[in-house]
UniProtKB/TrEMBL annotation:
Listed name of the protein: ABC transporter
Any one GO MF annotation of this record: ATP hydrolysis activity
Domain of life of the organism encoding this protein: Bacteria
Residue ranges occupied by any ABC transporter domain in the UniProt entry: 7-253
Organism: Arthrobacter crystallopoietes BAB-32
Residues shown, of full length: 38 to 291 of 343
GO cellular component, one term: plasma membrane
Position of the signal peptide: none
Taxonomic lineage of the native organism: Bacteria, Bacillati, Actinomycetota, Actinomycetes, Micrococcales
ATP-binding is among the record's keywords: yes
Keywords attached to this entry: ATP-binding, Nucleotide-binding, Transport
Amino acid sequence: RKRDPILVAKHVTRTFGGINAVDVEYLEVPRHKITALIGPNGAGKTTFFNLLTGFDQPNSGEWTFDGTSLAGVPSYKVARMGMVRTFQLTKVMGKLKVIENMRLGATKQEGEKLSKALFKNVWGGREKEITRHADGLLEKFKLDTKREDYAASLSGGQRKLLEMARALMADPKLVMLDEPMAGVNPALTQSLLDHIRNLKSEGMTVLFVEHDMHMVRNIADWVVVMAEGKIVAEGPPAEVMKDQAVIDAYLGAH
Ligand code: ATP
């Protein structure tokens, strides 16, 4: 079968001072699969996410999402095109209610327009439909009882769930999650893993950053290992874990 990756990155580099934070020669993200991006602290995983999603600009490189070049495309347009992400430290808006956070996920607006979206008629007559979509997702993520609560009152794990649910308001094809399980209690971790599996069964592609190699074993179809900005190994989880370069680059740092 012909390969049909949803995302292809070539020669993507980013330096900070003298450090090559990201130096990715080539990466394909397989469509309709769950791919884990793992690597030690400072490997460049978050920086790579930032570059791919328009939150940071590379020194060089090109990448395509679903065949369209994304170099220079601002983050809000990347999201509008169907590639959404979450953050290691969640960016839910604490002073807004849970349901309001969800609605913002559907506005696909830029910067300050986003906050005005709540107060102006930017929904184009879609408000009922958007609210229905939001309520469906809140129920699925078991946040429906928190609907009218301010996001600031949620636990860390619930914020992760809210951010993931909000990202889905954009009807994405590719969902990129930066350490979705970090700082989440064991019960919610299980539920997050289930949600990630569900995204795949609903036809989405998932790329997620995870620190713990053992966490990815049961969920990832494909594992990409990053160290010092470079991709040092990739493959199915069982194979990658046997790879000496991975053990050196990854486990050696622990
Ligand atoms: P972690 O698992 O700790 O999140 P990571 O793999 O996501 O690590 P990055 O956060 O991408 O790694 O960092 C890669 C390198 O780039 C590190 O050396 C980091 O110090 C450096 N770096 C990242 N962002 C900046 C910045 N804004 N300014 C300067 N250096 C940065």
